[in-house]
Design goal:
about 775 residues, mainly beta, Immunoglobulin-like, Maltoporin, Chain A, six-stranded mixed sheet, 4 helices, 48 strands, globular, disordered C terminus
Amino acid sequence: MFTETFTVTSPAAEGGKLVGKVVESPANTAVSFATVALLAARDSSITDGVVTDENGAFTMANVAAGSYLLRITNMGYQTLFVPNIRVSPEANLIDLGSITLIPEAQKLAEVVVRGEKSMIVDDIDKKIVNIGKDMLATSNNVSDLLEKVPAVSLDENGNPQVRGKGNVVVLIDGKPSNLYGSDLPTILQSFPANLIERIDVMTTPSAKYEGEGASGVIDIITKKTKIRGTNGGLRLGLGNKNNHNVSGNLSYRAGKFGLNASLSGQSRGMTWKRTLSRDNFLSEASSHLEQSGTGANKGNNAFGRIGMNYDFNEKNSLEVGMNYSQNNNRNNSNLLNETSNTSGAVVETFRRLNNSKGNGNNMNFNVDYRKKFDKKDHQFNFTTSYSLGESDGESYYVQESEIDSLMRNQQNLRNNNRNSLFVNADYTWPITSKATIETGFRTRMSSNDNTNSFYNKNLETGAYVFDENISNIFGYKDATYTGFMTFSQKTDDWGMRVGLRVTDYNQEINQISAARKFDVHFLTLVPSLALTRKLSDASQLKLNYSRRVQRPEADWLNPFTDLSDPRNIQSGNPNLRPEFTHKAEMGYSNYEEAGGFGPSLFMDYSNNAITRIRTLDESGISLTRYDNVGRELSYGFETDFSKKIGDILKINGSGRVFRSEVVSQVAQIDNRTWSYSGNLNAFITLPADFRASAYVNYEGPRAIAQGTREGVFIANMGIRKDLLEKKATISFNVQDIFLSRAYKSQLMTETYSQSSLWQQTNRQVNLTFQYRFGKISASGDDA
C-alpha cells in the first residue's frame, strides 16, 4: 500500500512532470498498455491520463499545481491507487519509480487504497452529481436517476424541472436530447441508468452551453471506458403492472481500437385517476362542471446503441456511433362529465371513452473528432449528429349520453415526421497556465411535419366523415447558428469566467391547412459571468450570472385543437414570442470526501414569460394554450448537502425556501406566494452486506399564472445485496410508497374558479438482478 507523499520543487516551470514505470508482481516484469489516470484528490475527477509503453513506462507533462492520486488499471490486474501526490507551483519532475500491480488471482495481505468520488462536486458554473452503485441499484432508467439529483424533480408527465420549474434544456453528452427522439419523457425512460457516469446541473450556465432553457441546463454524461480488454453487464428487472426491463452493455478495447454497445427493452404500465370541479361565472346563468375519470397507460420501448473509437495517436482520436429507439403505447380512459345549474340540478351528463395507441422510432448517427495539442488542455473538438424519426397514432372516442345531441363517435389519426442536423466545433486554448480561452460554433437545423386528421362517425350510415374545421397539417422548420467565447482566469485564490453567446435564430411556420405561412427571425445575446474565491482546498465562494432565452417549441406553436376532453380543449399558439430570463446566484460550498454543503441565494427574473393560460367561454368550455403573459420573479435561499457518517450511513439532498411571483397587467394576473421544497436520499449499510436506501421529495405550493399548484410529496425505498464476490447485485425497490404523488391545482379568475387533481393510483414494485463481468467500472471507483 502506498502511503509515501511525493512532493518535488525546483526552478519555475510551466507545470510538473510525472514519470514512472508499472511492473507486475512478483516477477517485476514491465506491464505494457496499462491505463494510468491522474485524479484530483478533492473529488477524484480525471485530470489527465496516459497508457504505458511497451516497457511499462509512462510520462505526464504540464501537470498543474495541486494534490492528486494516481489510478492504474489493466485487464487481469487489481486496480491500484497511489495517493498523496502533491505538485507545487514550482514543480518540475516527480519520479514515482516502479509501481507494482498485483494479478487479480493473487490474494493481497494488505489493504489497497481505493478512491471514492464525492457524490456532489461544485464546479465554477455547475453542480456535478456522480452516479454510484447506490443510485444505480435503485434506478432502472435516467428518469429514476433524475429524481434523486438535488434540485431536480419530474412533473406529472415525466418532464424534468429545476427548483420546481419546467423549461429545462436536457443534453446528452453535450448534444440536444431531441436528437434521440421527439418525446423527452420517453427518451429518459428508455435510457438505461447503468450507462450514466454523472449528471451536471447548471442553473446559471456559462455561454459555452445552450442559451435556451429558462430554468437551466441538465447535461447527462454517459460512461466512456478506456480499460483494455472486455467488460460489460446484464440487468433484468421484474415489476408489478407489467413494469419489466432488461438491458445489457458490452465494452471492448484493444490497442488503439475500442467498441461499445448496449441494448435495452422495457415495458411500462400505470393506472391513474383525475377529477375537476369548475364554476363558470361568465354566463348570466352560472353553471358548475364536475368531472371524474380513470385511465391506464401501457407501453414498451427498446433502445440500442453502438459506438466505435480509434486513437490514431496520443493526440488524435475519432469516434462514430449510432443509436436507435422504438416505442409503442396503449392508453385508455373513462371520463364522466356532469353539468349543473345554480340550483344544483344536473342539466347534462355524458361519459367519454377514449382508446388510443401509437408507435414511433428514432435513429441517430454521430461522429466525434478530438485533437489534443502539446500544451495541457489545449484541444479542438468537432461533433456532428444527424437524426430522423417518425411517429404515428390513432385515437377513438365514444361519447355516451341519454341526450342524443351529446352522443359522439370520433376518430383522430396522427402522423409526425422529423429530422435534425447538429454540427458543433469547440476550441480550447490555454494562453498561460492560469488563463484559457474557449470558443466555438454550433448550428442546428430541424424540420417537423405534423398531420392531425379528425373524423366524425355518421351514426346513421356508420361512415367516418372528415372534419376539416379541426383537422390540421402543420409544418415547422428552424435553423440556429451560434457562436460563443469564454475567457477564464485563475490565481491561487480567485477564479473568473466571462462569456458571450450570440445566436441567430430562424423559424418557419407553415399552417398548411389554413394556407398561412410566416417566418420569424431574431438575434439573441446570452452573456455569462462566474467569479470564485477559494477559501481552502475544499471550500469556495462564488457569484454567477447568466441570461437565458426560452424559444417557443413546435408543439407550443401548432394550432391543432386537441378535443380528447371536449370540455377542456387545448391548442397551440403560433404567435408566441421568446421568453428572456436573468439568473443570478451567490453561494458558498465546502465539499470533501466525507461530504459537504453548498448554500446559496438565487434570483430568476423572466420577461415575456411563456406560460399556460386557460380561458372560458359562455358555454363553459375552457381553452388552454401557451401565451406570453408578462413577468415571473423567483428568489430565495437554497442549499444542497452530502454527508458520509462512518461506514454505515451516507445521505445527500437539497432544500430551498423561495418567493414566486407571476404578474401581467394585460392578462390581469397578480399572483405571489412563498414556497419551500426539498429532497433527501439516505443509503444505509446493514449486516450481511445488505444496503438499504430511502428517498423523499416534497415540492411545496407554488404560484402559477392563474392560481396555485399545490404541494407534491413522494417517497421511495429499496434494499440491495451484492453477490458472487460483488460481481452481481440483487435489489428490491418500491416507488411512491404512500401513493402520495398527486398533482393538484387551484385556479381563480374573474370568469371561473377551478380545482383539479391528477394522480397515479398504483405503486411501482421492482425486483432487479444485475451481473457485471470484466472490469466493472471505467473509473475504478464508486460514488
